[in-house]
Amino acid sequence: MERLPNECISTAATGVPISPLPIPLAKRISALLVEMRPRQWSKNALLFAGALFAGRLLDPAIFVHALLAFIIFCLASSAIYLVNDLVDLPHDRLHPRKQLRPLAAGALEPRIVLLATLLLVMLTAGLTAGMIVLPAAHYPDAYRFAGGGQWLFTLMLAVYTLTMLAYTFWLKHIVLVDVFTIASGFVMRAMAGAFAVGAPISPWFYLCTVLLALFLALSKRRAELLMLDSRAWEHRQILRDYSPQLLDQMISIVTSATIMAYSLYTFLGSTGSHRLMVTIPFVIYGIFRYLYLVYIKQEGGSPEEILLRDHHILSAVMLCTLAVFAILYVLPAIHM
């Protein structure tokens, strides 16, 4: 990434220092958007899972609730990313990839990041308050919680925010607890999405989410360990407590458990359709493809980038989603 002129520059002819040039507003906004990590918003797609697997995604009122929940979590997660980058600024400058982020590269001032964080917090709070006052009358009785699911969604959002902040300041320095905290973030997204639309999800789905999130988190740790090599602990001290052999063992365990849990979910889940078993090959292929990228291509440090960049994994996800949609929405309509 191009370093913006925020330091004094000397002319080659005279060697006289020139005052720093002001950073254009457009570049500041662009750098801030990059720092907010919009690519990571793909993780928040889990908020639609509740409506999807409950067969209610095509209900306009339910979809609006799910979409609003998605936007709220995107804003909240971006605020947390900004706080994390402010806290980790000295360490990010030692990382071969994170040092290219606008804040670490000097393209964005910390005060701008702090102001943006406060603005994101206010927007998140305002939209959450708006969700609370939305009518819950559109929920069918079978999916309605006491008082509507909006309050439970708000509670889950608060728990998610506090957990991720605890991770930023404390939990990421505790071996194994760090990866379990990352996994819990995915589970809380799925739960928040279900609460937002008042839709229960099978416990099997939560289990699959936990295992898949652990798989991604462990793969991320392995990629960081190999990328930074002997300097790994300088960037993240917890990496000195891991080894490639330990991570390989844990990845092997959660990979097998994820495939088994999802397979059982297609048979024992609450969707009421055993036809979901046809999606098992897509899930297995996606996991195996990710393992290929981690072990052969030495990738895995940024799961969200792999999802958007690797056409094989993206195709597997899209085909799996289309199959679920066809089984839960199209086939029942045909047989009516």
How does this model look, in words?
It is a single chain. The chain is mostly helical and 336 residues long. It folds into two domains: 37-201, UbiA prenyltransferase (Tetracycline Repressor, domain 2), CATH 1.10.357; 202-229 and 240-330. It contains 14 helices and two strands, in the order E-E-H-H-H-H-H-H-H-H-H-H-H-H-H-H. The chain has helices spanning 25-35, 49-53, 60-87, 89-92, 102-105, 110-133, 150-169, 177-197, 203-228, 232-235, 244-268, 280-295, 303-309, 311-335, and strands spanning 9-10, 17-18. A two-stranded antiparallel ribbon has the order 1-2. A hairpin with a 6-residue loop joins strand 1 (9-10) and strand 2 (17-18). The longest helix has 28 residues, at 60-87. Mean pLDDT is 82; it is low at 1-20 and 140-147.
Distance between the termini: 56 Å
Query: Can you give the helix content as a percent range?
Result: 55-70%
In terms of per-residue confidence, which ranges show pLDDT below 50 for 5 or more consecutive residues? 1-20, 140-147
Using the alpha-carbon principal axes, give the shape.
globular
- Please give the number of β-strands: 2
CATH homologous superfamily heading of the largest domain: UbiA prenyltransferase
By secondary-structure content and strand pairing, the structural class works out as: mainly alpha
Determine the number of helices (DSSP H or I, runs of at least 4 residues).
Answer: 14
The H/E string reads EEHHHHHHHHHHHHHH
Number of domains: 2
CATH class membership of the largest domain: Mainly Alpha
What's the CATH topology label of the largest domain?
Answer: Tetracycline Repressor, domain 2
Strand content: under 5%
Cα radius of gyration in angstroms: 22 Å
Query: In this structure, how is the largest beta sheet organized?
Result: 2 strands, antiparallel
Strand order of the largest sheet: 1-2
CATH architecture annotation of the largest domain: Orthogonal Bundle
Mean of residue pLDDT values? 82
